[in-house]
Each structure stands twice: as structure tokens, then as C-alpha cells.
Amino acid sequence: MPVCWILNESGSFVVALSWLAVNAYLFIDTFFWYTEEEAFFYTRVILGSTLAWARASAVCLNFNCMLILLPVSRNFISLVRGTSVCCRGPWRRQLDKNLNFHKLVAYGIAVNSVIHIVAHLFNLERYHLGQAKDAEGLLAALSKLGDAPNESYLNPVRTFYMGTTTELLMTVSGITGLGISLALVFIMTSSTEFIRRSSYELFWYTHHIFVFFFISLAIHGGGRIVRGQTPESLRLHNVTFCRDHYAEWQAAALCPVPQFSGKEPSAWKWALGPVVLYACERIIRFWRSHQEVVITKVVSHPSAVLELHMKKRDFKMAPGQYIFIQCPSVSPLEWHPFTLTSAPQEDFFSVHIRASGDWTEALLKAFGAEGQAPSELCSMPRLAVDGPFGGSLADVFHYPVSVCIATGIGVTPFASLLKSVWYKCCESQSLPELSKVYFYWICRDARAFEWFADLLLSLETRMSEQGKAHLLSYHIYLTGWDENQAIHIALHWDESLDVVTGLKQKTFYGRPNWNDEFKQIAYNHPSSSIGVFFCGSEAMSKTLQKMCRLYSSVDPRGVHFYYNKENF
């Protein structure tokens, strides 16, 4: 594997490995502590090894619940990403993979939850068996503690005749544990790729059960079901000697009745910092959502694409960033991410929204994209905007050579980038690091090219006038056409301008041969660091990652491809 790719991917590997190592350390350390700690010797007599399994998984749960909110604190991520002290290169790119880390931590929560639940089900049954009539010896003696005055109990189950389910629902730990489990099931099942694509609203609403999840988590340990011997009792009651003289506990001065207490809840201590940080995040979002957004222009494009131009006080952006939009008339709670298609040099910011779900379809309908748009902008629905937030595409200008690849509506982030390049050319500004941009757009509908073709035409013209035509090399691929379109294309094939886009660069038909494309780029720039930026389908993302690995040189002085994917 090429050295550059190892460096490129080492960040993700190290982050995942570090996370796994901390989880393993916490689990193993806690497991052996509860296996050997003298204060829990009598607890282990009743519960056996499942005590250690329950407590070790609980600590790992606390650790992962501490982490789960950090990757989705967008303002915090943007702040870290924008600081000068932030690590650059492969490490900075990890901030663009925040949702991948969020999912990884969620899997950790799910695995440890299963271990914790199963262990406590065994614990509950063993507590129950400790009160059985045929229980004898030390087990029976420990289970009956608490019946007499001045005794503290060890076994929270006080009678054999009460059902396990009833016992579960009569404790704070049982009720909150059941609530946490149900919340986790709803959140995890609604987060699958299928649900998110087919019903984003269901995913969005169920994800906000996290509020109930964290409240229940904070009070879950309040039941103090797992109990251990108190420090004072350990000084007076020698476990090594007294465990064999349990029948004499009431009478022998050397072995007073052991006293027990529940472990103090600790989950809230783990989660408090991130919860406060996330609360601040939501306060900022709430404040931003009440800032006035003025809609200056609405354009309905073919292929069910809506273009919105907006203004907002003190709004500052960079190429490749994205915003979250809320439309109260469509849904008072839902926020959806959209990449900005305007350039920082423009006095407005814009987005292009394609109808691809219930919310976006309702938004297009509200703005009249499916029919006659309202003639007055003042009659448009109110919008709230949160952002902008940094994305991986903001690093395009940090490479000497950048390869930008988009499929379908995934072209929107590159509109901002290319507009910024256009303005820099108009203002005769230099691009100190960037010397070459390769742009690829693959789309199945010819009508989808219309709104973007004007930008490419302006860019093509301006760069020629400035003598910078070499800066941009663009390739447009049409993957879908009917018989009439094919005949029309064939009849106008020899014209100087492309029949589909009206550009000098002719449209390609079919899909790119990525082996040939990457081979040619590597040949053109033999000793360069090349940033590959992609926004589109997961299947093509895997193909491009493979190409970056394949065509990166093993020589540190050779060509290196660094893959970046836009994530929301």
C-alpha cells in the first residue's frame, strides 16, 4: 500500500484504534477490579462473574455516552477546524469524518448495552434465587440480611414470591433501564440507511429521543441495586475469616454483621460536560434560527431543483461550506443540510434544493416550484438558517492540484468553489497554492446541466480572457438519454459548441473510466499532492478511494492522492 495513502488513512485508523483501545482498557480494568475487590466479595457470592460483566460494560457505556454528542456539535467542530492550532493534513480531515465517528461510538453503545442488559438479567435472576426456600449456606445468609433492625441489605429482592418483571418495574434502575433500552432501539433502528433515505423525518424525530435517553441515564444509577460492603464494615468485619463463620455473625464480636451500601451514580459525571456543550450548541442554533433571513430570489430549475438566494446579517462563508435550513410552514422542528452554491464574493448566499423526500417536496411546493411561483417575494414562506459550517471541500485551495467529482445534485458544493475561482480570475487575484482544477460531473438527466452550464460558460470565457484557461479542466458525463436525444446529439455532433451544455468542451456519454483518468492525472503531475474531493453516491465513493490508493506513489517524493468526501 502506498505510503501517502497510509498517511492519508492513518488518521481514521488511529482514531478508531485509540477509541477501541480506551474501551478495551476501561472494560478489562473494571472487570478485574470487580472480580478482585474485597468490598464486593459478598456481592460476588450472590451474582458470580456477571457482576463484573455488568459493571465493566456500564463504564464503557458511560465513556461512549460522553463521546456521542461531541461529533454532532457542529459549531464546536467548526471552531476546532478553524483554529490555527488544529492539526492539518490527515488529522484535520478527521474532523470531516465526524459522523463516521458518531456512528462508531453508537455501535459501541449498542454492544455494551447488550452486554449490560444480559448481565443484569442474570443478576436479577440470581438475586431472586437467593431468596428461594432451598437456598442455603452463605448465599441464604447474605440474602436475608436486612430483615432485622440495624441491618443493611445486600440482596435488593426481598421475597421469592414476587415475579422478576414486577421486581424490575418497582425500582428506579429497572424503570430507567427499560426506558433507556427502548430509546436506544428506536434511535438505532431509525438510523439505518434505508430509513434515512426513505423517511428522513422519522429518522430526525426519533433521534431526538436522545433527550429522554440522557435524562434516564443520569438517574439510572440512583436505584443503587449493585451494593458493596462499606469501608467501615471492612475494617471491623474481616471477610477472609468471617465468610466461613456466617452462622456466628450475630453473636461473635470478631465478625459483626457486615454493612452494605449502593455505589454512587456516576453516569451524570461522564455526560455532564458534553451535555452542557451540546446545550450551548442548541442555544446558538435557536438564536440563529430567529435571525431574519431575507429571500431575494427564487428560481425553479428543471429536474425538480429549486434555487434560493438569501441574505442574512453578518453572514460570512467560505467555498465548500454548508448550512442547515428550517421552514416552519413545512415543519416547525426539522432542519436539513444543504451546501452553499454561492461564492464569498457575492452579496447573497444561495442553495440548490432537489426534491428527494417529503420535506424537500413540500418545500418546493411551498415556493411554487411545481407550478406558478408567487409573484411577490414577501409572500414566500419564512426560512431559518443555521451556519455556515466547514466541510472537506473548504480545503480545495490548499492543494496544488484538486480533482472535484460530483454525481447529480452533488455538484452543488462545487458551484461555490468554481464561482470563487471565477471571481478571483475577474479580480486578477492569484491562487497561491492551487494551480490546476479537474472537474467531473456525472448526471443522468440532460436538463440538470442547464442551471450549472451558465456558470461554466462564464468561467470558461473569463479564464480565456485572463490567459488562465489551463487552470480548469472540466468533464461532463451524461449517463441517461432517450432515442430522440440520441438523434439530436448525433445531428449536431460537428458543431463547435456542445449541443447539451452550449460549452466548448463536449459532453461525454456514459461513465468515466477512472483508471484512465487517474493514470493521466498522475502522469501530468508526477510529484504533486493531489486532493480528490467527492460528493455523491457511496458506491462511487468506494471506487474513488480505491483509485486514490492504486495511483498514489510508494515514493514519498512521487504523486499522492488524498481522498476527501463531503459528509453531513
TrEMBL record:
- Short name of one Pfam family for this protein? NAD_binding_6
Biological processes, Gene Ontology terms: defense response; detection of gravity; otolith development; superoxide anion generation; temperature homeostasis
Q: What GO CC terms are in its UniProt record?
A: cytoplasm; NADPH oxidase complex
Which residue ranges run through the membrane? 12-33, 53-72, 104-122, 168-190, 202-223
Localization per record: Cell membrane
Kindly give the membrane topology term recorded for this protein: Multi-pass membrane protein
The UniProt catalytic activity note for this protein reads: NADPH + 2 O2 = 2 superoxide + NADP(+) + H(+)
The answer to whether UniProt assigns keyword Oxidoreductase to this entry is: yes
UniProt cross-references to PANTHER family, sorted A to Z = NADPH OXIDASE, NADPH OXIDASE 3
Protein name as annotated = NADPH oxidase 3
